[in-house]
Structure formats: structure tokens, C-alpha cells
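Note to self: keep these together.
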Amino acid sequence: MLESVAVQAFWIGIISAVSLPLGALVTYVWQPGQRHIALLMAFGAGALLFALTIDLFAPMLNSGMALTVSVGAIIGSLVYLGLNYLLNQKGGFLRKRATTLQFFRNRVRRQRTEMLRSLKRLNIFHSLDEKSLHQLVAAIDVVEVKAGQVIYHHGDRAGSFYVLCEGVVSILDPQKHLQKIIQLEKGDTFGRMAFFTGLNNATMAIAKSDCVLWCVDYHCINDVLQESSELYQTLLDFYVQESRYNTELLEYLQQRHFFSLQQAQEYLRDIQAHLLQYRELESHHYPEHELNFSLFKLAQRLPWIKSLPEEDLQLFARGFEWRTLKAGDTLYKGRVHSDQLYWLEEGVVNYWNPHDKTGLIQTHSGGDFFGVRAFLLGAKEAMTVEAKTDIEYWVLKRNVFAQLLKQSEALRSVLKKFIKNDAIDTYLVENQNLSTPQAHIWLNQTVRHLWPDRLPNLSEWQDPVLPKHTAYLAIWLGIFLDGIPESLTIGGLMTLESAVSLSLIMGLFLSNFPEALSSSASMRAQGIPFVRIFMAWFSLMLFTGVGAAFGVVFLHDADDATFALINGMAAGAMLTVIAETMLPEAYHKGGSIIGFITLLGFLAALLFKAIETT
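Structure:
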């Protein structure tokens, strides 16, 4: 008898969960819109709410087990929330849009709290009142960077300073061949000296691991300055203090920007005077006549750009920014991700391949541009470049170039032609260590198909960003966790009544289908192959059946109190899933109509219950 009931429970579990792999299959042939998913999810949530209320809680109430089932529901909810939290920290939140949104909201909330603590550790903000600090924190941007990405180059205008929230950052010294001078960890601040002097960055910052940064820029500070007298007075006092002997900013100006002591003190007093008059901080700007003159020369000296119409030529030229560097300083080292195109206006630079055993050193002089191929292909620099003399040069940042491509069809056309006609295949093989077949595949699949949507990214292709095994396992475990309560519920009801109501089966089926649709779409967006997604849902369907059969075996000789407790735990966990993920996600995607659709799902389950009882 027990065996036959367990088999029945297994097949009922399979039927209720067959909509899971079915939903995954649907996403393979059809990508449902967000609103479609929302409506289905709300309808299923309404049906499941009815089933939980009428088929699980109501019988326990009639049998006098209201307190026991309530305790079980609370325990089930807390256990689910705890396990769900642990899995989310390992990447399990990616299984659903709702859990993804919730995870990032919670992370932002924690980051804001940590941000306050970090700012208070800085001398300049230590005495600020809570209101000014909160205004400052509200204006700060959160920036995520990948391992190997340059956060700022030496010579970049310091529009921001940074607080390291997560990860590791190395600060490199161009005066010492870009050797590491310090390694920063969580809570450390960098870029402050250039920011508060308004001069260009004198060092290079590069992410050694994936990092989360808090970015404080001039707009952020100046906006708060207009409202906060506390911050205004704090900054005035800061510059008065820093203009005296043996202070951080004076030392920075003398060592990194070669000011004399008198020049440095006068410079800081000028900043203080500007702050006093205009109630704002200001970055250094280059004279307009110098900018226009150099841009004109730049446009005339780039042979692969000359064919552009004058309007597009001006657009391209104005994307460049002017820089200077002292003799002996290193511009960049080989094997660093390229994110800038360089054009040398005056002076001479040496360049060499650090992996070339011959030690051959070559030179670029005024009018040359370099780093082109690595820049255009999103590759790592093959050469190390060092200033032989004092140099003046221009840089075009990759993110700026991407915006220019969107605006200029002529620029896209010229660039395509340049890449196709240049010896890119040879470059990929000799300088980027690709095999000849790999080089051909990359050119065919990437370069010729990415314009104008985005720039090619060879580094991303060589090291594809796919979910780690642990993240995929966490996602699967999260899906499995969501399915445990319903399988135990089916097993428990089969033990008690040797049957499961049609309304419960229908509620589970209808709630599972949109969940699989939504989660499968989210998982595919993470780069998980479809086969692995389908197997995750198919295995969950099997485990639902096995769990239902296990519930029969586990509860077949349980007393009423134990049964009520277990049933309450399962129902509490399912109600938590509905409230925490299904309904918030449905409302987020579908809007105000979701309440009405949820009611329709509830009434549909009621109709099934009425049919079942007649």
C-alpha cells in the first residue's frame, strides 16, 4: 500500500512540475516579453495562494492544529530565507530577476553604510555633520571595474577620487617604469591629491581584481557645497592648512608636478580664493587657442582619417585630450589592457617588446600615432613605451571612441576598411598569441559584425566571462530550494488523504511555468548554455517527484502534530517565495494590472475546486 501511494505521489509531483522544463523549452524558440511573463506569474501566484489557503491551512484549522501549523509556517519561512541568503551570496540570486534586484538593492544599502564610515575616516570629511555626509553619499556614484582594467592613467584629468569598496587596486609610478608603489584594499582612498589640486593624475591606478569603487567627482562635491555650509567651511580650512609647510598637497605638488615651494603655496591659495568667491572646486583646463590649434594639426596628420568629411573629421579630432609627460617616465607597459589611442605631438618616445630577447628599441617622434591595433581590437598592449624626451601627446579614450562611432557612419566605414586592409591577422598571431585559425574566426565573428553597436573586445574573447561552476551550482541549488516545499506538500497530502486536490496541482503547475520562463531568460542572460538551463529544470522536475515520494515515506506514520508542523513549514516557505519573488517581479514587469490578474488566478483555482467537489 505504502509503495503504491509513493508511486502515485511521484507521478503527481512530476505532473505539477512538468511546466518547469516546459517553460525552459519555450524560451529556446520564443523570447516572451516582460509583460507576458508578469501576467502569467501573477495568475499562477493567485492560483497558488488559493491552493495554499484552502488545501493546506484550512484543513489544519478544522482539525484544531492552527497553532502547530502556524509555528511550522514561521519555521519554514525562516529556514527558506536563511538558505536563500546563503545561496545568493554565492550567485544563486541570478536564477530570478526578483532575487537579482533584491540582492543588488541590499548590496547598495550596505555599500551606503560602509561609504559613510569610509568618508568619516578622511581628515577632510571627519568633522562634517551627518546631514552633509548623507548628502555627499547620496551623490556618490558606484563604479564596477574588471580585473586588469585601468581606472585612470597618469596624465588623465582628475575629475574624481575613489574609495575602494571591494577588490584590490595597484598604484603604479610612471617615474619608476610603472612599478607598483602601493597596493590598496577595501576602505582605501586614491586619486585624492590630483582631485584636490585640480591637476592631472600623476600615477596610474589599475584593478588587480574585480573591484567596486565609490566615485566622488567635482559635480558631487560642488552640488553639496551649494547646500552645506559645513562642507564649505571644512574645505576652506583644509586649503588654509595645506598651504603651510610640510603638508600632503604641498609635497605632492613639488614631487609630482615639479612646483617650487612658493609656487605650490600660491597655487593652493588660488584654489582657496576660487572656492571663497564661487563656492566650488574647479579642475585645471588648457587654453582654448592651444586646443584648437593642436586639433587642427591632429586632423591633418592621421592618414587613415583624411578621407572623412570635414564635419566627421572635426567630430573625431575633438574626442582627443592633451597630455604631457617628463623624459624617463613610462607611458604604458606591455600586457596591459589597451583603452587609449596615442598621438605624439612633440618629443620622442622609445618602444620595445618586453618579451623580445633581442632587446630591440625603436622610436616614435612628433606626428606618429601608436597603440592603434590594440586600441581598436580591445587587446592587450604588446609594447612598452617610455618618454625619451619631454613629450606632448594626445589620447583618445575607448569609451569616447565608441560614442563617436555611434554618431558617425563615415567613421565606422573608414575604420572597417582600415581593420580589413591592415595586417590584422599577422598581428593577432604574432602579438596576441592566437593561432591562425583562431585569428580568422575572431575577425569573421567579431570585427565584421560589431559595428556600430560596440567596439571589438579581443581580451573578452580570449578570456570569456562565463559563470563559474560554483555560481552555476548556486543557481541550481537555489532552484532546488524553491522546489523542496511543494514536493513535501504533495507527499504529505498523499499520506493524509491518498489524493491531492486538483486546485493544488493546477496552482503548482501554473506558478511553475512563468517562474521557469523568467528564470531561464535570466540565466541565459548570464551566459549559461541552454542545455545546462534545461537540465537544471528537468532535474528539478525529477526531484519534485522524488521529494513527493519521500514525503509519503517520511510522513506515513507521523502523528497529527508532526504532519501539521511539516505541512506548515512547506506552506510557509511557499508563501514566502510568492511574497518575496513572484509578486514583486510580476508587479515590476507588469504594473498595476497585476493585482487584478492575481485575483483572476485565485478565482480560476476556486473554479477548479468547485468542479472537484461537484
